[in-house]
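STRUCTURE REQUEST FORM
Protein name: Short-chain dehydrogenase/reductase SDR
Source organism: Penicillium digitatum
Requested output: structure tokens
Priority: standard
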Amino acid sequence: MTSNILILGATRGLGASLRTLYSVKTATHVFATSRSSNPEPSPGVTWLTGIDISQPDVGQKLVSQLPSTKLSTVIVQMYTTSAIGPVFVVHNLVKAGLLDQGSKVILLSSESGSITLRHEKEGGGNFGHHASKAALNMVGKLLSLDLKPKGIAVGLVHPGFMRTEMTKSVGFDKYWDAGGAVTPDEAARTLATFIEGFDLGKTGEFWAPGGPGDIGTAGDVLGKNLPTPLQLPW
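Status: completed
Returned output:
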């Protein structure tokens, strides 16, 4: 039986690494979204084009390009965070019968969305980024409550601090070594392993599959000798 994976935001960074990783797995087909109308062809991948998660019609556009087949996993990767976007996506997928008992929805958030992990050690600032991730976490939690009776699991994930052009463009490359940054390919492998074991028993929870290594305040707030994967506080 083929496992159908939908990756929203699959053209670069972690999304591209996940697309490549899943596309070479046996009995797996990848549906990948792009905001552009002309993404580069990729073996084992069906491109869904013109998909912008910040737009209110994203769910309808997505469903109109998908075949009538159950999706085993939906991974939502957003570069410009739109906290309400996943609601439009998931509700339309459920309404179309593409998500059902046993399906998984993984929303890629960030430890920066945890209010508990904010600490005087790191100070304030980054208001928009932190607040948008906190809002995404709330959306994911509420979706998990809506979808649990249908047997659909929803997870919030901090995929890790990554060595990408995006983090470099904002000057964070100077923290790559000290902050335990990994490549998108490494983060994708860790995330895929976590998703494989993720089920309804963990729905509505917030996790760091790679553990506490790149979370600067983890030791100050949560203590020492923390496990990997690490469940994060809200």
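Reviewer notes: The helical segments are 13-23, 58-65, 85-95, 127-147, 165-169, 184-197, 218-222. The mean pLDDT is 91.
Form closed.
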